[in-house]
Design goal:
This protein has helices at about 70-80, 100-105; strands at about 5-10, 15-20, 25-30, 50-55, 60, 65, 90-100, 120-125, 130-140, 145. The protein has two helices and ten strands, in the order E-E-E-E-E-E-H-E-H-E-E-E. Strand 9 (about 130-140) and strand 10 form a beta hairpin. Strands 1, 2, 5, 9 and 10 form a five-stranded mixed beta sheet that branches. The chain has a five-stranded antiparallel beta sheet with strand order 6-4-3-7-8. It is mainly beta. Belongs to the transthyretin family. 5-hydroxyisourate hydrolase subfamily. Catalyzes the hydrolysis of 5-hydroxyisourate (HIU) to 2-oxo-4-hydroxy-4-carboxy-5-ureidoimidazoline (OHCU). It is an enzyme of class 3 (hydrolase). Keywords: Hydrolase, Purine metabolism.
Length: about 150
């Protein structure tokens, strides 16, 4: 299986190690915002994730498990073929949600965790690449992210 068009990587900076077994969800929020001056265009509506995964021992998600009840239109919107392959990335606004509170709870650090989850919302315009990588540098009281390669 090839690598998905969107991948992620979590490094736990409080331990200096990859964050393994973190539950992650991927959402298609909506189409690209055409009227940048319209505040309502920036509202994020509640949606179901279209894909889920857990980070591996290296803190990475390279492939996702798609929601089994996705219909043909939902698959087409994000570029998933009818056969279930995700080789094409479609433009739009996406969100990735990391269940960081559960991760720290399982490490017995729940009382030290400020973020029960981290949501990163980003846009993918006319994809110049076939791959977008979302790294998350995480500690118990802070996080940072950037467009990876």
């Amino acid at each position: 299986m090839s690598v998905a068009p969107i991948t992620c990587h979590i490094l736990d900076t409080s331990y200096g190690k990859p964050a393994a077994n973190v539950a992650c969800s991927l959402y298609y929020v909506g189409p690209l915002i055409e009227d940048a001056g319209n505040e309502e265009a920036y509202e994020v509506k509640d949606k179901k994730p279209f894909a889920m995964a857990r980070t591996n021992e290296d803190g990475r998600v390279k492939n996702w498990v798609f929601r089994p009840d996705l219909n043909a239109d939902e698959k087409a919107t994000v570029g998933i073929s009818q056969s279930g392959e995700w080789n094409t990335l479609k433009p739009g606004i996406y969100k990735i949600k990391f269940l960081t509170g559960k991760y720290f709870f399982e490490k017995k650090d729940s009382e030290r965790t400020f973020f029960p989850f981290v949501e990163i919302i980003y846009k993918i315009e006319n994809p110049p690449d076939k791959h977008y990588h979302i790294p998350l540098l995480l500690s118990n009281h802070s996080y940072t992210t950037y467009r990876g390669s």
